[in-house]
Structure to design on (1616 residues):
């Protein structure tokens, strides 16, 4: 009797959730693995990651773009942030969210009965996404906890930092494996999924970082060259004919898989139930408070330094990347051209909302995809690695491909440069000309070791040359110190993870 | 002195005594000892027979006389008695008398009563049936009946041979029945800290729900309503907050049915028989895992033995807004706008030849007049109660209709109840209690939606909509929106249209059905089995047509949605089965034992579903037209939890003086993993009826004294049903648009914690109860310490774990406090009576530990728009109370002397400032707290304490003849309130928005005030002590004046009773607070108290009522 009572009582208290699936029961079918994989991707499409913080607050305040607001808000773009700054906390959190999602998926990857090759694709994509997230973490924060399995319980939270080298070793190993598993982009048919060339291109980027500050492992230029060359030789990619069209495609929800190797996908204006728009679309757009042609906050302004970098007046990239006009009164669809000397007050023009097909315009969200990796970038990485390994001869051919497409003169014939040191600077400038506002510049400057110097120069230029209405922008550059080559570890992490230490100077 | 020896109770003797007292009065004032003694004797003789009468007529003499030593009186009394009865010898020789002794109160036979023959050694005791026999010698002999807990009684033998004696309880109050968990006890036998609400007083308040009238009634119980909207939330916290992130609401036990979050608006306060509030662990531990926040026991009225009685209680009255906000008049408004944005404003106001001066004569729109109204409130309750010894029944119903003081808002309730108690046979009793309520709350909450701009929401527009325009094309009063304002970036909307056309209907239905069966096994053992269900259905309907901000194609949000609406249904189904065995036995009056054991089972099932549609084509159809619109969001959810418990309690009373209680409950809850499912909550208490000790009898002015102390363990299980499990979700916004097609994305949204267990509160309580002057004055003092450990905390995680937070048992909070209740019959004359009750509570709350190394926890509020969304407003710091206001210290304005002239003649500040390149005199000045020369986030500090130093209430009842008057005050002292309205309406806000008139006194070069900063001098977005205000208040909360129709008139109109009354609620508030009302909590939670922004103003209610008994 008592036994019966005990067992029925146990049954009475054993309720089961009806509204969600507990972790232990998930990841058991192919469909569930794919849904979980979409969850990993979506970690990269959050406010903290490619929708906004990773590519705006944490990427600008460089010689390309400045925080175009004269206010006193805390913002990493003016380098008055500290470890409690929300945007860096968001970015850190959402990258680790994604890592956790990938870890959970990878842990159960063998659970469902399914086609081996398809399982491999899922595994490869998850490995890639996790590695990309770790790359961003190392790039921004240096040594960070390296978690390759989901935490077992709420007590397993004192996770110490792993050295950047160990993380690079891990993620290059993972990516090398992933490259064998994932599909070719031509089989995929659009740029929003991980392809073999996406893996190879990101490997090149990681090896370049490894070769640069702070690890300065020169041997990695060779690896970078190998992987970039693999993309070039894959035959999957070629430069788009029209530079502008690349970004119009982002806004129009079109893909050019030849040029655009990997994009983070955004869609819609967030008016519908599912919220999949991107915030950078609106923040980077030309200032406008009217929806005739799309709202734009112009939170980031293009610097004169960038404008002047375009060393050929025929370079179509300048007046596309930097908007040559503003909207009348900032609230109409009437374009008012900037005077030729007015190079300090221009907005970003790379993603122009008028090309969006989704209506009505979202005020805070737009449909544009963010380019993580373009073929032009691969060519420039190849040029950079090649130059470091064997000088400008071969390297200039890759660089010239990019310049030719933009209508700029090529570095050959009379313009040929043979000194690797001089050509190094050319490549660096070419990167900003080609890739401005694509979230790469600050990382590039830091790995090249001249970040603080370039920032100070940019600040001096603004102080000396900018009109008084823009001069406030110098403040941010003057705030830059050596400690800014790394972001501070978020306060919550430092205070709650007992094994965590803070970065130098923070 | 007459020769009356055959004394009848009262009548004759009364006259006799009165006569003497009157005649002795001059002697009294003469203060001559000998004669004075005689008057005392007479008094004592009288007292034996009719103290009440005597007391009322001659209170002063009575008091004086009574304060003399009992000893002398006794001896003199004997003299007097023998004097009185010397001539009354009748029967000769010993006679055997017999009789029975009962309790006057419940007519129960009393065993163990001592009967002694005064002046002799002869004694007898009543047996188990209350019978006694005793030998007397003569009719003049006097019998003394004494029994612990009862007033002793003396009777002259006279001619009677069979005595039917009734003893009155010693102190009436001690015999008050107090409902406790799984039983009831007499107040005198109580070992724990339990507050009993004076229900008669409370029911005099003209309110919709009992919670609204509860504030200030009971020491230790803090009641705070969010705002004044009919039906808006009320938070009740008993003895301080234990939990940081989880609910601190008490457990409600309604007619024995424990329920964690009832909608108390759905109960008719008129039907409530009693409310007891269990405060200490000895009282609450019987509710185990749900007892830590205290328990509120609500018992509804049942049928009573007697002829059927019909009672009608109806009232009708009005509510009016207590205060309106002074806004700028057209001149002040235009003047400010011209200063704020000179060019833009000049083009708006200085047109058609108008100058600023012209606005002095312009009559503007005072929007508060257009939106606030005098609102009707009416309430009708009718009941039929009656029964026989075997069958008792009640049928009752009520209708409540309360309009809100903002147009198109209010509350309607219709409700009925049926109870039946049937004695089947001498051992078996069954009963039923069924209630059904249907209610509708309607009208817009004037606060902005969570996370919206500060300019969203009705109240912002009521206050901020501009009073005047110079644009002839704009009709401010009748246009839906103001075309001069950038509607695309502003939530402002004509408040008349918002109030009129935004449909916000909340429907609730509540069904309660409880049944029980009681079976006696022999004399001492009783089995009670009860079963019940509670079903609460809610439906929230929202509709925004094209005349509203959310549905008009011009506005930012409306453009995205068009006419739109949603319906969300919620359902909470609870069933309960309780089985208890009670053993109740008294052994020879020295040992009383009451034991309860029981087992209970409860299940709560919740579910919700709903839908939302945009661009509804035929908006006139409202909600029913949703199916024609574009489907948007779908909602569905389902969950459940179960609880199985065993419980036991022993109450043991020794010699009627020493009281012991031990209780234990073991709860098993589905909310925790297998390993932590069961837990144990013991408690123990000791009380000592000190006043019944002989030595205390010496202190004559103390009529009652009790010391009690308790210690116990209780729990809090307010976590989600499956908080211990990891969750994989497919949250609806979280899809990934592969190739521009949406793919579901699964994300781990919660990390399970298999180790999760109850939050445990250890509570110590020591109480002292004293009665003075025959209990005319009563004092209750309690001291408690609560130590809450293993806090159920939604604990922050280092985000490298992949989770932001998870439910953990981490952290520790302490509360300790003192509660004092003082009540008394101040005047007790025949015609005029005044009794009074005062209570005050002091609670101190401290965080001892947060999660891991965390030193503090910052919390922001989400109601003041994007710029304030991430600014912390509260800090919870180890060593401090749970929530403190956090921000800059405001030091007035920068004045001219704070600057010097730089080399180029520019003004350079001497003091640090918070950013902004062109700081000027008149700008707001914050303190550089850390002295580093910059004002930045590091200068944020504690700027206010929302916790009161003390709070309480003061009730007074006056009766004069047939008139009765109840006056109730409530007070809270020492709490700060953050007045967010001042942030928006005192110098910030949006362009072309009206401001408080107070901002007229702003800094100008001619008026270098420190009160308000100059136009545009608000500095960076920040919270500061400028807008932290003292929220202390004293409120004349309830006044009720009634008149009972006299008996002869009633007889003529064939009524049993009739009282007419006028009642008022929230009549006057004394406070320094500048907002609508200092009792406010727009974001009610432990971490975000006392925040005021755009809330529904509180109203003053005056009703006229009629109470009829047929």
């Amino acid at each position: 009797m008592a036994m019966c009572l005990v067992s029925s009582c146990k049954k009475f208290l054993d309720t089961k959730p009806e509204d969600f699936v507990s972790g232990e029961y998930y990841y058991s079918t192919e469909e569930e693995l794919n849904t979980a994989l979409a969850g990993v991707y979506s970690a990269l499409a959050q406010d903290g990651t490619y929708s906004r913080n990773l590519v705006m607050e944490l990427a600008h305040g460089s010689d390309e773009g400045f925080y175009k607001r004269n206010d006193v808000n805390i913002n990493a773009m003016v380098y008055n942030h500290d470890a409690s700054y929300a945007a860096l906390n968001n970015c850190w959190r959402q990258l680790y969210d994604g890592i956790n999602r990938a870890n959970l998926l990878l842990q159960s990857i063998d659970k469902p009965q399914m086609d081996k090759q398809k399982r491999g694709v899922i595994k490869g994509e998850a490995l890639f996404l996790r590695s990309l997230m770790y790359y961003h973490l190392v790039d921004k924060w240096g040594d960070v906890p390296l978690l390759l399995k989901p935490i077992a319980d709420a007590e397993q939270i004192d996770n110490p930092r792993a050295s950047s080298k160990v993380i690079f070793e891990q993620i290059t190993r993972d990516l090398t494996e992933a490259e064998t598993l994932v599909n070719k982009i031509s089989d995929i048919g659009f740029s929003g999924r991980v392809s073999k060339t996406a893996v190879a291109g990101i490997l090149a980027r990681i090896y370049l970082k490894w070769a640069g500050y702070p690890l300065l492992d020169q041997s990695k230029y060779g690896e970078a060259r190998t992987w970039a060359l693999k993309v070039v030789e894959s035959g999957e990619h070629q430069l788009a004919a029209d530079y502008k069209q690349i970004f119009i495609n982002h806004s129009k929800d079109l893909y050019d898989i030849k040029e655009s190797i990997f994009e983070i996908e955004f869609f819609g204006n967030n008016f519908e139930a599912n919220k999949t728009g991107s915030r950078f679309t609106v923040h980077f757009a030309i200032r406008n408070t009217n929806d005739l042609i799309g709202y734009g906050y112009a939170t980031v302004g293009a610097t004169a330094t960038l404008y002047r970098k375009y060393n050929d007046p025929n370079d179509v990239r300048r007046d596309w990347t930097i908007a040559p006009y503003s909207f009348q009164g900032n609230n109409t669809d009437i374009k008012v051209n900037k005077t030729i000397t007015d190079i300090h007050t221009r907005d970003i023009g790379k993603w122009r909302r008028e090309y969006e097909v989704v209506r009505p315009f979202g005020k805070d969200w737009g449909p544009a995809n963010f380019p993580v990796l373009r073929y032009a970038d691969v060519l420039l990485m190849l040029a950079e690695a090649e130059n470091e390994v064997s000088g400008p001869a071969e390297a200039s051919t890759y660089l010239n491909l990019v310049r030719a497409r933009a209508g700029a003169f090529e570095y050959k014939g009379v313009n040929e440069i043979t000194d690797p040191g001089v050509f190094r600077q050319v490549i660096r400038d070419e990167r900003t000309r080609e890739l401005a506002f694509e979230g790469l510049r600050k990382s590039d400057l830091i790995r090249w070791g001249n970040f603080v110097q370039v920032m100070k120069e940019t600040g001096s230029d603004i102080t000396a040359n900018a009109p008084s209405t823009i001069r406030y922008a110098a403040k941010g550059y003057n705030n830059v110190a050596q400690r800014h080559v790394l972001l501070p570890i978020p306060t919550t992490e430092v205070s709650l993870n007992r094994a965590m230490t803070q970065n130098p100077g923070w | 002195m007459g020769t009356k020896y055959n004394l009848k109770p009262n009548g004759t003797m009364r006259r006799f005594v009165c006569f003497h007292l009157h005649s002795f009065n001059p002697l009294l004032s003469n203060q001559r000892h000998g004669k004075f003694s005689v008057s005392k004797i007479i008094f004592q003789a009288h007292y034996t027979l009719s103290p009440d009468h005597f007391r009322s007529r001659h209170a002063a003499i009575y008091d004086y006389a009574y304060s003399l030593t009992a000893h002398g009186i006794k001896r003199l009394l004997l003299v007097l008695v023998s004097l009185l009865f010397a001539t009354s010898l009748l029967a000769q020789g010993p006679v055997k008398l017999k009789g029975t002794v009962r309790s006057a109160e419940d007519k129960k036979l009393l065993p163990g009563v001592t009967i002694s023959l005064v002046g002799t050694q002869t004694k007898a005791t009543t047996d188990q049936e209350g019978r006694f026999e005793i030998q007397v010698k003569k009719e003049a002999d006097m019998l003394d009946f004494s029994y612990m807990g009862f007033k002793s009684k003396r009777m002259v033998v006279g001619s009677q041979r069979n005595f039917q004696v009734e003893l009155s309880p010693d102190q009436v109050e001690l015999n008050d029945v107090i409902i406790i968990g799984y039983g009831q006890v007499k107040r005198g036998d109580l070992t724990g800290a339990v507050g009993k609400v004076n229900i008669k007083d409370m029911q005099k308040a003209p309110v919709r729900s009992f919670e609204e009238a509860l504030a200030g009634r009971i020491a230790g119980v803090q009641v705070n309503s969010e705002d004044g909207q009919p039906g808006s939330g009320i938070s009740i916290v008993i003895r301080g907050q234990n939990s940081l992130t989880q609910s601190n609401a008490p457990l409600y036990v309604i007619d024995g049915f424990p329920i964690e979050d009832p909608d108390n608006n759905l109960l008719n306060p008129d039907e409530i028989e009693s409310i007891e509030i269990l405060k200490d662990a000895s009282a609450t531990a019987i509710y185990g895992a749900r007892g830590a926040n205290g328990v509120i026991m609500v018992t509804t009225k049942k049928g009573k033995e007697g002829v059927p009685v019909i009672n009608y209680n109806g009232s009708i009255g009005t509510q009016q807004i207590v205060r309106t906000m002074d806004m700028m008049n057209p001149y002040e408004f235009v003047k400010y706008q011209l200063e704020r944005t000179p060019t833009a404003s000049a083009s708006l106001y200085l047109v058609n030849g108008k100058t600023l001066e012209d606005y002095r004569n312009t009559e503007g729109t005072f929007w508060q007049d257009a939106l606030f109204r005098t609102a009707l409130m009416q309430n009708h309750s009718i009941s039929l109660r009656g029964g026989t010894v075997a069958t008792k029944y009640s049928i009752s119903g009520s209708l409540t209709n309360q309009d809100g003081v903002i147009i198109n808002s209010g509350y309607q309730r219709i409700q009925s109840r049926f109870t039946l108690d049937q004695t089947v046979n001498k051992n078996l009793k069954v009963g039923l209690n069924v209630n059904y309520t249907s209610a509708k709350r309607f009208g817009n909450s004037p606060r902005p939606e969570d996370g919206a701009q500060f300019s969203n929401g009705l109240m912002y527009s009521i206050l901020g909509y501009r009073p005047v325009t110079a644009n002839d094309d704009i009709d401010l009063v009748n246009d839906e929106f103001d075309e001069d304002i950038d509607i695309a970036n502003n939530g402002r909307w004509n408040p008349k249209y918002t109030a009129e056309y935004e449909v916000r209907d909340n429907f609730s239905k509540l069904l309660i059905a409880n049944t029980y069966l009681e079976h006696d096994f022999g004399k001492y053992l009783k089995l009670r089995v009860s079963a019940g269900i509670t079903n609460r259905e809610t439906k929230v309907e929202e509709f925004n047509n094209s005349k509203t901000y959310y549905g008009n194609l011009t506005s930012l949000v409306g453009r995205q949605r068009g006419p739109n609406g949603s319906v969300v249904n919620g359902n909470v189904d609870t069933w309960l089965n309780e089985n208890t065995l009670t053993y109740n036995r008294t052994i020879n009056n020295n040992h009383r034992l009451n034991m309860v054991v029981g087992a209970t089972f409860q299940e709560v099932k919740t579910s919700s579903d709903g839908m939302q549609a945009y661009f509804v084509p035929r908006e006139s159809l409202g909600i029913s037209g949703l199916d024609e619109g574009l489907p948007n969001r779908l909602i569905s959810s389902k969950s459940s939890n179960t609880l199985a418990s065993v419980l036991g309690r022993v109450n043991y009373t020794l010699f009627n003086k020493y009281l012991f209680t031990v209780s234990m409950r073991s709860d098993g809850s589905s909310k925790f993993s297998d390993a932590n499912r069961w837990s144990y909550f013991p408690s123990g208490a000791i009380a000592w009826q000190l006043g019944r000790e002989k030595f205390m009898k010496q202190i004559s002015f103390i009529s009652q004294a009790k010391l009690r102390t308790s210690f116990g363990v209780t729990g809090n299980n307010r976590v989600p049903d499956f908080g211990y499990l990891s969750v994989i979700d497919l949250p609806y916004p979280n899809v990934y648009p592969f190739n521009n097609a949406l793919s579901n994305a699964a994300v781990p949204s919660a990390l399970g914690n298999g180790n999760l267990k109850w939050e445990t509160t250890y509570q110590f309580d020591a109480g002292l109860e004293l009665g003075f002057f025959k209990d005319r004055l009563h004092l209750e003092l309690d001291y408690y310490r609560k130590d809450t450990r293993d806090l159920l905390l939604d604990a922050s995680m280092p985000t490298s774990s992949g989770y932001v937070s998870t439910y953990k048992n981490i952290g520790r909070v302490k509360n300790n406090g003192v509660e004092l209740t003082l009540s008394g019959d101040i005047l007790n004359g025949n015609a005029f009576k005044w009794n009074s009750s005062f209570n005050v509570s002091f609670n101190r709350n401290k965080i001892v530990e947060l999660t891991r190394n965390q030193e503090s926890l910052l919390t922001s509020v989400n109601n003041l728009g994007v710029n304030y969304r991430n600014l912390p407003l509260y800090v919870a710091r180890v060593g401090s109370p749970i929530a403190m206001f956090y921000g800059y210290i405001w030091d007035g304005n920068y004045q001219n002397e704070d600057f010097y002239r730089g080399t180029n003649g520019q003004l350079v500040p001497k003091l640090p400032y918070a950013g902004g390149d062109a700081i000027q005199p008149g700008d707001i000045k914050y303190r550089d707290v850390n002295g580093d020369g910059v004002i930045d986030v590091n200068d944020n500090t504690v700027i206010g304490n929302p916790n009161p130093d003390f709070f309480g209430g003061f009730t007074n009842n006056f009766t004069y003849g047939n008139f009765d008057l109840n006056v109730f005050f409530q007070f809270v002292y020492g709490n700060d309130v953050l007045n967010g309205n001042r942030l928006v309406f005192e110098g910030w806000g949006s362009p072309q928005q009206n401001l408080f008139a107070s901002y007229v006194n702003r800094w100008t070069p001619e008026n270098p005030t420190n009160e308000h900063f100059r136009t545009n001098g608000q500095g960076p977005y920040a919270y500061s002590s400028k807008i932290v205000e003292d929220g202390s208040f004293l409120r004349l909360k309830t006044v009720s004046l009634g008149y009972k129709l006299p008996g002869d008139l009633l007889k003529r109109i064939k009524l049993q009773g009739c009282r007419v009354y006028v009642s008022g609620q929230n009549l006057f508030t004394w406070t320094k607070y500048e907002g609508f009302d200092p009792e406010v909590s727009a974001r009610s939670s432990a971490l975000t108290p006392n925040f005021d922004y755009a809330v529904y103003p509180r109203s003053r209610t005056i009703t006229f009522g009629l109470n009829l008994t047929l």
About this structure: Chain B has a mean pLDDT of 85.
